[in-house]
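pasting for ref
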Amino acid sequence: SSEFPVGFTQVKLTAGDAARNEATCTFNVYVDDRDPPTITCPGSVSQILPEGGTEQRVEWPDPVATDNTFVRNVTVSMKSGQVLTIGKYEVFATAYDLYDNQRTCNFTVEL
């Protein structure tokens, strides 16, 4: 039993018998990555404006993504630290791996 990495791996097999006869063959094994990354968004964020205020800078932790190969990119629909006005905002984060598999999570920011 063998484990192969994602992509092409060349395998060479040699078989022999008691009479010292041998035969060799070579073949390729291709492993395709179809597993999307995992991504975890922070919990919902709620902040209260100071009295008389109409906007405030709101910050939250970055989403965390992992993958069985490599996380190539994480996009977020709104960046932490923006100045927001009163309202409820849905934030979406998407993680992409090297093979363009993707997964999205979301959370709410309310001011």
